[in-house]
User: Fold these one by one.
Assistant:
Number 1:
Amino acid sequence: MTPVLEVKNLCHVYSVGTPFEHTALSDVSFCAHRGEYIGVIGHTGSGKSTLMQHLNGLLKPTSGEVLLDGKSIWADKASTRQARFRVGLVFQYPEYQLFEETVYKDIAFGPGNMGLSKEEIDRRVREAAGFVGLSESLLEVSPFDLSGGQKRRVAIAGVIAMEPEILILDEPTAGLDPSGREDILSNIDAYRQAKNATIMMVSHSMNDVAKMADRLLVMRDSLLAMDGTPEEVFRRASELVEMGLDIPEVTRVFLKLRSLGLDVPMVYTKEQAVKTLTALKGGVPNA
Amino acid sequence: MLKDITLGQYFPGKSPVHQLDPRTKLIVLVGYIVALFVAKSWASYALCFGFLAVSIAISTIPVKSIVRGMKPLVLILVFTGVLNLFFTGGETVLVHFWIITITLEGVVRAVFMVVRILMLISATFLLTYTTSPISLTDGLESLLSPLKKLHVPVHELSMMMCIALRFIPTLIEETDKIMSAQKARGADFETGKLMDRVKALIPILVPLFISAFRRADELATAMECRCYQGGEGRTKMKLLRYKRWDMYAFAAGALLVAAVITLASFGL
Amino acid sequence: MEAMRVEHLSYSYPGVDDTPGVSVFEDLSLTVEQGSFVAVLGGNGCGKSTLAKQFNAILLPCGGKVYVCGMDTADEEKLISIRRSVGMVFQNPDNQIVANVVEEDVAFGPENLGIASPAIRSRVDQALKQVGMYEYREHAPHLLSGGQKQRVAIAGVIAMAPKCIVFDEPTAMLDPQGRREVLQTIHTLNREKGITVVLITHHMEEAAQAQRVVVLHKGNIAADGTPAQVFSQVALLHEIGLAAPETVELCYALNEAGFALPLDRLDSEECGQALYDWVKA
């Protein structure tokens, strides 16, 4: 199966030839398949955001390539424009980019730029609003009258409405309380399942990525330091800690159990932990 | 990146020129400008040039940076030069061609004008290169404080300038971010007719204004929390105080003005 | 001694034109002991930021009283004394830094108080050293990281020598590194300078490190006690849209499966130990 997205030896240097010159990406290569859920983790300044902005052609690589279905997004003008729509990018705190009078119009901005018919736009707006759990009645309200969590969902719907094959989100849950986080994460997964879309989520929350992603990319100082399943990545817990990154709390607990001499496998989600521990105790007590 | 732009082009340093009181620099600059405009002869220009050259030398600011700053002004300089060259009447005609007459007086005047502007701008650059925007604001506030008696809101103006300086980089960065976010939704700022391009700005301007107002509101609250109640009863951490070098600068400035005026009174 | 006392506070935001106002508190009472470290926890829109603004008279009660260091916040004469006693640090570090040089910003508060120049200088230097930003005193704030900016904001508050500091979600916009820096600074201030800390947050892990946790829900206190007491009420927390720290959640999930594990193990070390004992038993 050919990957939908391929990144080959991507390099990016900012402000070339000035005293501010610095390398944000060096020789990053990976590929993504349809329906994959990829978590991207790394320190602030490790190059995550720069990487994301290359995938839909907002930034042009200094060298290297970004391929969609095997074709470079910089091959010609049409491909670059297509990349904008095929790869949806939700920035951090996306609610600050809302500008229209009504929620409906704001969500319709992206599809409108794609030059779709009125009916198609209408269908997409309603569907996108459905994915993020916004009721019909909210569509005619001004986005500025909504609560913070609702605004965030309108902004995400605005990108989902373009029906991107690859949806990239930069810290979609930042600043939300636990129930708000839960909602957004399940909205995103609902979209992935319905459209068989690829998700790339940048997050500082290891619990979130451990729970959602089936693959993790770890960025460090402009390099792609690790690429693997959560299990493979979190097995290298000590390296992550050394990079100044967190590891899921459950993994910490299990590291402690191991240090106490208990022979347990590495786990990174609560569900796995419960399963492992229950098995260790010989099954559920009163089942 | 946009945020790398340095504002006010301040080059931090420890030279005596850097350490001068901002008021000194402002006053001496005014004196220097007066001298430049009074100057009529090569001798007085030479005096002014000497003053400028010594100041630049002491400041350790590379001449290269000052020259580089001139680049955007080349057009104005050429325009001034050409205008004076062609439209100054005189007796000694050097070239007469079609309707164009160039006189010796014209050449002299054009050279004087260009040199005057060059020297004026160089001195202003020297001020902004060696003075941080905040101390410049402080200096202005202090120099203008007598105007408070006339109910000119001097403190408020300088506070506004200070806050503007603080927030310009933040807002530039924010504009950058909003632009990227709207581009990611397929917004197009580069092509189309003029009207389309103006329309395309709405998705940037609306969020930018909303955010600026939100920032202003939060900043006002934060300032209130830190007991800000206007200029009344406020003190300053860094008191402006004239030191030895300020005296030298004043003396040199006064000497320059006096010398140029004296020369001028002798018709030189 | 009480640093803050809230008595039967009611507050509603005034409505605009015809729209009715929004009621946030109806009858809230709370006291904060001097020198204590209290975390106020709650979901988005539970009223925690509104409460923060009551503590230094940015907002005034519609009914009931708020006392700060014995002063009634409704007393206009005391306004400046109140704001000197209670400092505030807000969520967005960018929107509370006034000057474009770090040390000038830290000096802003003391300058407003009319303190003499040499005294301001020493306060500024001390405050910057306290938060570990002394080397950055001549930097421009917009080039600092989020955590560094927030520490500058904290220095700006401690330069005014307050008795209490209210932190309104100071880490919400920071990355894990910045969050660690800021929390560490807050704990040091509480421990070493005896400053009363009210930390408003929705991060369970941050609240777990406080001496006392107050859970707000729809303008009422839903739980109040030590972190261990509060976080062991997992069902209640879930009901109001919050969660307990992951370690407690793990034990809770095991209990749901029919085991009996303690719900007061807030960090991975303690939790690991408890699980080990349980597996071995």
Note: Chain B touches chain C at residues 3, 12, 132-134, 162-163, 165-166, 169-170, 173, 214-215, 218-219, 221-229, 233-239 (CB under 8 Å).
Number 2:
Amino acid sequence: MLTLDRLTLTQGDFRLDADLTIQTGARVALIGPSGAGKSTLLSAIAGFLPPASGRILWQGEDITAAPPGERPLSILFQDQNLFPHLRLETNLALGLNPKGKIDATDRARIETALARVGLEGMEKRKPGALSGGQQSRAGLARTLLRGRPILLLDEPFAALGPALKSEMLALVAEIAREQGTTVLMVSHDPEDARALCPQTVLVAEGHAHAPQETGPLLDDPPPALRDYLGS
Amino acid sequence: MLAGAALAALVLGTLAAVTLRAGGLTGLRETDLAAIRFTLWQAAASALISCVLAIPVARALHRRRFAGRGLLISLLGAPFILPVIVAVFGLIAVFGRRGLVNAALAPFGIDPISIYGAQGVIIAHVFFNLPLATRMILHGWEAIPAERFRLAATLGFGPAEVTRHLERPMLRSVLPGAFLAIFLVCLTSFAVALTLGGGPRATTVELAIYQAFRFDFDMGRAASLALVQVAISVAALLVAARATLPSSFGAGHDRRATPIPQLSGGADRVAFDTLAILLAAVFLLLPIGAVFARGLPALADLPEMIWPATLTSLVIALASTMITLAIALPLALAATRQRWAEIAAMLPMTASSLVMGTGAFLIARPFVNPTDLALPMVLLTNAALSVPFATRILMPEIRTLQADYDRLAASLGLRGFARLRLLTVPRLARPLGFSAGLAAAFSMGDLGVITLFSDGQTRTLPLALFQLMGSYRMDQAAGAASLLLILTFALFWALDRAGHYADPR
């Protein structure tokens, strides 16, 4: 269970409150107008933005002050998810051991993870030699290896075409179901939310609301969301 | 932190020693005041002449396209690492008593001109800084968006209107920085003054320190002069900090589209531009050509003493390069977040090698024989003087690196030595190689602190060349100059290439 306990985030004039709970294994979309603070909220959970007040807890344990690499989560950003100068093998190895050193067992695990996302045999390639979709898959493979219970997605598939994007969302859903991962995804596209996330957190007007059922929320949106959706 | 402390200890420690010994400025003589005046005057004159002459050259390079243009622009970067003593040798070959210019003037009954004295110091400074100024102004030109030139063309502008509406505003913003940058460089000029200056009318403060130290052995006066030198540098740096100094290394190649003929003018302007480029190219290439023309055949019979000196110079160059990087990289990494680190990295700009040398001598004299200090001091001052350049080169690249990958590295817990090995060094391979090349070339060509400490037997290659010139063995000197030139550029090229090669992209 991920708990945001009376959390307040500030950045200059910007201010966002969040006081909510997300069940273990839930898949939750963060939706709201641009500039509402969806990515900011994700940054705070990932440990890049210290909150002005409040706590972040995972399974009852306070992780508010933990450094990003020691939190029980993996994050995929919009871009720069791989080090372009390192081979996929080394990029993925960093998910197993931040010192980048690996043994034969690790190597086998990396091969398996790459195969799981459909990149078998590409260990020696560098990110530049992959397509955008393949790069996303490699990033996802690394989160598989890290095996952290929470996965944060900050619009990592936004640059992909519609077909590739739904393919990636399906892959994430499949893996999350297998591993029991709790997923939080920022998205601009309500269809992404419907596809991957049974629940949705509405972020609007300085407030992150408690999770609601995605379908009913999108079918009958409150005013703040309706303006954004434009329907 | 450690790197900053080490650097500060060297710069501030020697400065403290100098200050204590100076005991106020009582040691100064009338001639020293003349040296201060000359230092300021020649720096201002050199900077002014360089900037004024650079304008037509930069304009011509900007609006003309010709075979070899790219090569010429690259060559404009070369004086930056050219050993001063080699350039001086080349300038003497061209402008000296038996030089090409006087040989050409003699048939017309014109009295021979002299390269020695104030005019020689200024000619040498213009030789070094005209290319620098040209690159900075050209950079300003290329920073004007192409759209603005297209707009100018659609509005029916000719070259005169381009001058008024585009060129002048650009020059107004670029020239003060260019002037200050060159002024600063010329303030601490030692090797040029040592070889071409001297006497009551062409002695810089740096040269006066050397003379007080070596000839009069008046340490109080040397220390007072060193203090004056630091005060001048600090004052100039404070002024410069208010103006934004343009990057000395900037000047991309052909970033702008092809020039628009309507804006570039007719035949008269083509002729003028051609003349500007030809004169600049001849002025810059002739001295180097003269060194090689006389020196390459002489490479075979260099005196024995050249070889140990060469080895010494190479070892010092490589060692001081390593020290430079070991100090500059941690400082540059810290400097993007903490102001103190950048200030620490810029500290050596306030001191010169002679100031540090004088200070180190004062500290060490009670304990060791100063001659034993010659090579270690050369090593340390060369390393320290390259730190500001290396830091300035690394910082923008580090900012990009941090913006791109800090969050990813943090989310993976990548830090410490693993981060250095897997992220920092691979991503910075190119600027590290470039910095290493500059540091090695500076050190290889340096003729500074070694002149203070050398007993005449311990020598670097530039000092050996200086001694050969002093004893008028000009063919051997030309050979040594060629050797020094080749080795300096080879070192720069090899290290810069190594950076490109190590870049995993």
Note: Residues 83-147 of chain A form one domain.
